[in-house]
Specification:
The protein is an alpha+beta fold. It has 3 domains: 113 residues, no CATH class; 141 residues, Nucleotidyltransferase, domain 5 (2-Layer Sandwich); 78 residues, no CATH class. The protein is 41% helix and 17% strand. The protein contains 15 helices and 12 strands. The strands form 5 sheets. Strands 3-4-5 form a 3-stranded antiparallel beta sheet, with helices on both faces. Helix 1 packs parallel to helix 4. Bound molecules: iron/sulfur cluster (SF4).
Length: 416
C-alpha cells in the first residue's frame, strides 16, 4: 500500500531532506540558522526538489548531488561544532538529515594536485561523494525514502514498485458463517510476506484465534515457516516453493527426490547407485544447510550424467532434515487433487482485498507513520466486518468469484 507522501527518487529525497531540515531549523533556531546558513542555499532549497531542473548527463547529475552533499555536511558540521546548542541535534529533521547523509554520501580522502615546487606532494582533502552500488547502499528496509514520512520504504514486487507499507489480512472462511477478518498486520513495504507470518500467528494465538489450517498465498510458504507453523499446531496450506534447478524445470532431470538420503549416516545414494563422497554443513541464504557432493570418478563416466549434472560431479544442497522433509511433504500434498479443492477457499481473501481497496481506500495510507497507518487498517477491517455481519444477518449470500462470460460458457457441462 502506498504511503501518504509523494514518491521521490534518491536525488529528490536528499534534496527534500535538506529542505525539511532547513525549514525545521528556521522555526526552531532562526537566529542560529541565519548565522550559519550559506545565502546561496536560498536559491538552491527555496522550492521543492521536483521544481528544479536536474542537470542532464551522469557526470553533471553526480556533481549536482555532490553539491547538495557538501551543503548538508556543512550544515551538520555547524550543528555538531563545539559551542552549538546540543538540542539542535535532537530535532527530528536534523537527526533524519544525519541518517540520510550517511546512507547517500561518503567522505573520501583525495590528494589535491602537487604544489608549485617540483616533487612537493599534494595535500589530501576530504571530499563528499555520492554513494553508488560500488560504495554500497543500505537495504531498502533501512533506507529513508522520504523526509516527510521516515517510516515509508521503497519496495518492489515483480514489476510493481512503490514506497509505503504492506497490509496482511487474515479472515475466517468457514462454510455457513460470515467471513470475518480476525487479524490485520501492517509492516514496512520491503518485509517479505513469509517473514511476517510468525508475528500474525503469535497475535492470533494471543487472541485465541489461531486456525487449525491457514490458507496462504505462495509468498508465505517456505520450508522454515511450514515447520514453525506445524509446531504451533497450524497446518500452513499454500503453493510450496518450486524447485528452480534445471533438473526440476526440465521435468527429465534427477531432482533431490531421486536420491536416497540416509540422514543418520549422512550418505546420499544417487539413481546410478553411487554413494556421496562428502556431506558437510553449509550456510545457505542465511539458513543452515548441507552440501552433499558426489565423486568426479563416479560422475564423469556415468551414462546417466546428462540427466543429473552439467558440471564434473553432482552437488546437492539440502535444508536441515525437518525442513527438507516438511517441504517435500508439502510438494507431494500439492500434487493431490484434494489440495486445489481445499485451497479454493482462499479465493475469498482476494475479494476482501479488492473490496477494501475499492470501497474503503485501503490502497493508500491516510496518515504519516506505521502506527497510524496500522490504526487505519484496523478500522478498515472493523468496518468490513460490520458490513459483512450486516449482510449475513440480512441473509445476503456471499458473492461468487466473478467469471468471464466465455469461461462460464466453456465450463458448463455439455448436455447429451
Ligand atoms: S552423474 Fe554422478 S550423481 Fe548423477 S547419477 Fe551419475 S554417478 Fe550418480
Amino acid at each position: 500500500m502506498l504511503g501518504v507522501v509523494r514518491s521521490l527518487n534518491r536525488l529528490e529525497c536528499v534534496t527534500e531532506t535538506l529542505r525539511a531540515a532547513l525549514n525545521a531549523l528556521a522555526s526552531a533556531a532562526p537566529e542560529w540558522l541565519r548565522m550559519h546558513a550559506d545565502p546561496a542555499w536560498v536559491e538552491r532549497y527555496d522550492r521543492r526538489a521536483s521544481d528544479y531542473d536536474v542537470p542532464q548527463g551522469e557526470a553533471k547529475r553526480r556533481a549536482h548531488a555532490e553539491q547538495i552533499g557538501r551543503d548538508g555536511h556543512q550544515l551538520l558540521a555547524a550543528i555538531t561544532a563545539p559551542g552549538a546548542p546540543t538540542w539542535l541535534r535532537e530535532i527530528p529533521a536534523v537527526e533524519l538529515l544525519r541518517q540520510v547523509w550517511l546512507q547517500n554520501f561518503c567522505l573520501v580522502d583525495k590528494a589535491l594536485p602537487a604544489g608549485p615546487e617540483a616533487g612537493e606532494p599534494g595535500e589530501a582533502a576530504r571530499l563528499v561523494q555520492w554513494r553508488t552500488n560500488q560504495e554500497g547502499l543500505a537495504p531498502s528496509l533501512l533506507m529513508a525514502a522520504s523526509p516527510y514520512d521516515p517510516e515509508v520504504h521503497y519496495a518492489k514486487k515483480r514489476s510493481t514498485t512503490w514506497i509505503g507499507y504492506k497490509v496482511h489480512l487474515t479472515e475466517t472462511c468457514d462454510e455457513g458463517g460470515p467471513h470475518l477478518i480476525t487479524h490485520v498486520e501492517t509492516t514496512p513495504a520491503p518485509v517479505v510476506d513469509r517473514d511476517a507470518l510468525e508475528d500474525f500467528h503469535e497475535a492470533l494465538e494471543a487472541k485465541g484465534l489461531l486456525p487449525d489450517t491457514h490458507l496462504v498465498d505462495a509468498g508465505y510458504v517456505a520450508a522454515d515457516q511450514l515447520v514453525a507453523s506445524r509446531k504451533k499446531g497450524v497446518r500452513l496450506l499454500g503453493p510450496a516453493p518450486k524447485d528452480y534447478q534445471w533438473q526440476g524445470q526440465s521435468g527429465e532431470g534427477f531432482t533431490v527426490q531421486d536420491f536416497l538420503l540416509d540422514w543418520a549416516r549422512e550418505v546420499a545414494t544417487c539413481p546410478a547407485g553411487h554413494q556421496s563422497k562428502s556431506w558437510g554443513p553449509d550456510y545457505h541464504q542465511g539458513r543452515t544447510a548441507f552440501k552433499v557432493r558426489f565423486s568426479t570418478t563416479d560422475c564423469r563416466p556415468c551414462p546417466l550424467k546428462p540427466q543429473c549434472t552439467r558440471s564434473g560431479r553432482r552437488l546437492l544442497t539440502l535444508r536441515p532434515r525437518e525442513e527438507h522433509e516438511t517441504l517435500e511433504a508439502a510438494r507431494e500434498r500439492e500434487a493431490q487433487p484434494t489440495f486445489s479443492k481445499e485451497y479454493q477457499q482462499r479465493a475469498g481473501i482476494e475479494g476482501t482485498i479488492s473490496a477494501g481497496v475499492r470501497t474503503l481506500h485501503l490502497r493508500r495510507s491516510r496518515y504519516i507513520g506505521l502506527a497510524k497507518t496500522h490504526l487505519q487498517h484496523v478500522l478498515t477491517a472493523a468496518a468490513m466486518n460490520l458490513i459483512r455481519l450486516g449482510a449475513w444477518f440480512a441473509g445476503t449470500p456471499l458473492a461468487r468469484t466473478r467469471q468471464s462470460a466465455f469461461t462460464g460458457l466453456m465450463t458448463l457441462p455439455i448436455s447429451a
